[in-house]
Specification:
Elements lengths: L2 H20 L3 E7 L9 E6 L3 H17 L6 E3 L5 E5 L3 E6 L1 H7 L1 H4 L20
Parallel strand pairs: 2-5
Antiparallel strand pairs: 1-2, 3-4, 4-5
Helix pairs in contact: 1-2
Length: 128
């Protein structure tokens, strides 16, 4: 990536993170993925407390990115348990905490598993 593409990517990430923070997303992780895949350069993973909040978070990300001049290629997942926003070089996953715990894509893509309750035991667990 050249310098301009990196600046655009950074602006895209900042816009998406701000959109998530505006609606009180939890455990926001930004992962660099360009060394692992050529499909996208960054991944953001965030949690919402309810299906309604997950949907609102994903919608706010898509709207904010469009308003900033970025193209949204697709949005997947209408159930509200897990919604993905594909913006080309940036992919945003918004999930319920139990779904995020079960699929554990944070560690799958080389990030750290979020500490959902700052060291306290989680009230849920992935199916055995």
């Amino acid at each position: 990536m050249n310098e301009q593409e990196l600046q655009d990517l950074q602006k895209m990430v900042e816009t998406a993170v701000e959109a998530l923070e505006d609606i009180k997303a939890k455990d926001i992780s930004v992962l660099e993925t360009q060394e692992k895949t050529s499909l996208f350069a960054r991944m953001i993973i965030a949690s919402g407390d309810s299906t309604r909040q997950v949907k609102a978070l994903a919608n706010n990300v898509a709207v904010s990115l469009k308003e900033a001049g970025f193209e949204i290629l697709s949005t997947e997942g209408d159930s509200g348990e897990w919604t993905l926003v594909d913006a080309g070089d940036l992919v945003v996953h918004v999930m319920l905490p139990a779904v995020r715990d079960f699929y554990d894509i944070d560690t799958l893509w080389g990030g750290e598993k979020p500490s959902f309750h700052a060291g306290a035991q989680k009230p849920w667990h992935a199916a055995d």
